C-alpha cells in the first residue's frame, strides 16, 4: 500500500512539475541542503562552505522558465570557475560533485543527486505487480515460485520442491 501511495504522489509531482518548480531548502552551520522538484525529476543538493551560517528552512515556487542550472546559479555570486570532481549519468539517475575555489582561498563544495520521476514510478510499481502475480498464482492453485499446477500435489511442488503456504 505504501508503494502505491509513493507512486501516486510521484505522479502528482510529475504532473505539477510541468507548470511549477518547487525549491525546498534548509541549512545548518557550514551546509545548505536544497531539494528541487520539477522538470520531471527531483534534484537533491548539499553545499558545504566554511563561512556559511545556519539557514532556516523555507520553500519557493517558480514558473517553468528557468532550467535547474540557471536556478541554482542565480543569486549565488559564485565566480564562473567551477571545477567538477565527479559527474556520472545513468538512465533516470545522476550524480555530480564539484567545488569552487574563491579568490580569498575559501572553497565551496557541492554535491547533487538527481532522479527522474519515471524511475521512481517504475520502482514503486514493481512490488504491487509482483504481489498481484503471486495472488493470481495462489488463487489458481499454482506454485508461487515456478507456476507449476499443484492441484494433484497440494503439499509440495514436484517441479521445484517449494512447500506452499497454507
Number of helices: 3
Q: What's the helix-strand series? A: HEEEEHEEEH
Whole-Å distance between the termini?
A: 23 Å
User: How confident is the prediction overall: mean pLDDT?
Assistant: 80
Q: Classify the helix fraction into a percent range.
A: 25-40%
Strand order of the largest sheet: 4-1-2-3-7-6-5
Specify the structural class.
Answer: alpha+beta
Based on CA atoms alone, the radius of gyration comes out at: 24 Å
The tally of strands reads 7
| Biggest beta sheet summary | 7 strands, antiparallel
Unreliable stretches covering 5 or more consecutive residues:
none
Number of domains: 1
Which shape, going by the Cα principal axes?
Answer: elongated
Please state roughly what percent of the residues sit in beta strands, choosing from under 5%, 5-15%, 15-25%, 25-35%, 35-45% or over 45%.
35-45%
Structure in words:
The protein has helices at about 1-15, 70-75, 115-140, and strands at about 20-30, 30-40, 40-50, 60-65, 80-90, 95-100, 105-115. By secondary structure, the protein is α+β, with helices and mostly antiparallel strands. The chain has one domain (about 1-120). The chain has a seven-stranded antiparallel beta sheet with strand order 4-1-2-3-7-6-5. Helix 1 runs antiparallel to helix 3. The two termini are about 25 Å apart. About 10% of the residues are buried.
Amino acid at each position: 500500500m505504501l508503494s502505491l501511495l509513493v507512486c501516486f504522489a510521484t505522479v502528482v509531482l510529475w504532473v505539477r512539475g510541468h507548470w511549477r518548480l518547487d525549491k525546498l531548502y534548509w541549512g545548518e552551520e557550514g551546509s545548505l541542503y536544497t531539494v528541487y522538484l520539477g522538470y520531471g525529476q527531483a534534484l537533491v543538493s548539499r553545499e558545504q562552505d566554511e563561512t556559511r551560517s545556519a539557514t532556516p528552512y523555507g520553500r519557493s515556487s517558480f514558473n517553468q522558465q528557468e532550467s535547474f542550472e540557471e536556478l541554482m546559479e542565480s543569486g549565488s555570486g559564485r565566480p564562473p570557475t567551477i571545477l567538477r570532481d565527479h559527474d556520472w549519468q545513468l538512465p533516470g539517475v545522476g550524480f555530480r560533485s564539484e567545488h569552487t575555489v574563491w579568490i580569498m582561498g575559501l572553497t565551496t563544495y557541492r554535491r547533487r543527486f538527481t532522479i527522474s520521476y519515471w524511475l521512481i514510478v517504475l520502482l514503486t510499481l514493481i512490488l504491487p505487480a509482483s504481489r498481484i502475480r503471486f495472488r493470481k498464482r495462489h488463487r489458481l492453485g499454482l506454485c508461487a515460485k515456478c507456476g507449476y499446477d499443484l492441484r494433484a500435489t497440494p503439499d509440495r511442488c514436484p517441479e521445484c520442491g517449494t512447500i506452499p503456504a497454507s
